[in-house]
Amino acid sequence: MDREKKVAVLAGDGIGPEIMAEAVKVLKAAEAAFGFRLKYEYADVGGCAIDCHGHALPPETLALCEASDAILFGAVGGPKWECLPPDQQPERAALLPLRKHFDLFCNLRPSRVFPALVEASPLRPDIVGDGFDILCIRELTSGIYFGRPKGREGQGADERAFDTMSYTRREIERIARKAFEIARLRRKKVTSIDKANVLTTMVLWRQVVTEVSRDYPDVQLNHMYIDNASMQLIRDPHQFDVLLCGNMFGDILSDQCAMMTGSMGLLASASINESNFGLYEPAGGSAPDIAGKGIANPIAQILSAAMMLRHSFGLEAAALAIERAVEETIAAGVLTRDIARDPRKAVGTAQMGDAVASRIRA
Ligand SMILES: NC(=O)C1=CN([C@@H]2O[C@H](COP(=O)(O)OP(=O)(O)OC[C@H]3O[C@@H](n4cnc5c(N)ncnc54)[C@H](O)[C@@H]3O)[C@@H](O)[C@H]2O)C=CC1
Ligand SMILES: CC(C)CC(=O)C(=O)O
Ligand SMILES: [Mg+2]
């Protein structure tokens, strides 16, 4: 790495600050071990930013992100802000605009079963086998989460609310190309998820994905309806390599994939744009039910930091070292409550971060 890189650290709400502290701890251990330097600059985002600045994505936060080489993001939202009008809630007023602003259209969510956690999966042992390895590639800046018009109108029994699902050929093509390019580096299989039997948007999705696939004859493509895919993931996860999804279906299936590996707290993600600028965040949310208790699993945040080193900074060896340290820590039986077989032996968030960091130092 030629110069010190600047990381915008947006921890957010709920468990966000707790798990972020552990990711930064691990990154600092990696800096010392591998001799690179990162500069961490912190800013408010989400509900805590509404409380302090009156806006979920204050201009100074956006300016910091623009001046940074990557964004490390925690989570936003929670019951405290649910009373706000929908367009002012932290998720819609901060996270979605951030994704749109930086055109972070490509969301990578890898779900792999750690060998020591085969038993933590809620799937039957004969289905999990030695573990599966699925990469969910989710389109992140379009689809029904962004389509216009959306709104509410009318009153009484006639009051209605509506969202618009929309995809352009260009939007589908660029995420499909990413999926095929990445599948080439893996097991060369793309399963495109849609609902083309009902939704016109998804008819175009299927058509464009099929057209793009002709440029990748070495990669096998099959199409699957979202309802079937949800069932097939549980019946036989080994049939999947790369899942190519639109925004909403990828949101839903990736939570399912996370839990199939043992916990929501294990699923890391990278959201990148065409210039390889990225935002790195756990796939889960602010987990208000466990926030402030020091028991959240920091692994998804730590592995998101490893993805940042790999995708934004080209620090492959350091990324691998973090991933290996996480795997070894889990194998040594250092487990947070969500993945521990015996909750009485579970460690807290900070102990898990300490254990991973000390393995990197070693
Ligand atoms: N990227 C983001 O900032 C996201 C924000 N949210 C927001 O977060 C809030 C809570 O949403 P929920 O639907 O409850 O989803 P959630 O992902 O926050 O929590 C779902 C379940 O997973 C557990 N969980 C999540 N992360 C965990 C971790 N690291 N360790 C252990 N357990 C973990 C929680 O305890 C909870 O039981 C809402 O305001 C929601 O809109 C939800 C998803 C993503
Ligand atoms: C605001 C939501 C779309 C966040 C979320 O659930 C996700 O990105 O997985
Ligand atoms: Mg989600």
UniProtKB/TrEMBL annotation:
Site residues, Important for catalysis: 145, 195
Assigned EC number: 1.1.1.85
Keyword Magnesium assigned: yes
Residues reported in the UniProt entry to bind NAD(+): 78-91, 285-297
Keyword Glycoprotein: no
Residues that hold Mg(2+) according to the record: 227, 251, 255
Chemical reaction(s) catalysed: (2R,3S)-3-isopropylmalate + NAD(+) = 4-methyl-2-oxopentanoate + CO2 + NADH
Keywords of this entry: Amino-acid biosynthesis, Branched-chain amino acid biosynthesis, Cytoplasm, Leucine biosynthesis, Magnesium, Manganese, Metal-binding, NAD, Oxidoreductase
InterPro entries to which the protein is assigned, alphabetical: IsoCit/isopropylmalate_DH_CS (IPR019818), IsoPropMal-DH-like_dom (IPR024084), Isopropylmalate_DH (IPR004429)
Cofactor: Mg(2+); Mn(2+)
Pfam families listed in its UniProt record: Iso_dh
Cellular compartment(s): Cytoplasm
Pathway: Amino-acid biosynthesis; L-leucine biosynthesis; L-leucine from 3-methyl-2-oxobutanoate: step 3/4
Cofactor binding, note field: Binds 1 Mg(2+) or Mn(2+) ion per subunit.
Gene Ontology CC annotation, any one: cytosol
GO BP annotations, alphabetical order: L-leucine biosynthetic process
Binding site for substrate: 99, 109, 138, 227
Domain spans labelled Isopropylmalate dehydrogenase-like: 6-356
Primary subcellular site in the record, as a coarse category: cytoplasm
NCBIfam families: leuB
Subunit comment: Homodimer.
Task performed by this protein: Catalyzes the oxidation of 3-carboxy-2-hydroxy-4-methylpentanoate (3-isopropylmalate) to 3-carboxy-4-methyl-2-oxopentanoate. The product decarboxylates to 4-methyl-2 oxopentanoate.
Homology family: Belongs to the isocitrate and isopropylmalate dehydrogenases family. LeuB type 1 subfamily.
Name of the protein in question: 3-isopropylmalate dehydrogenase
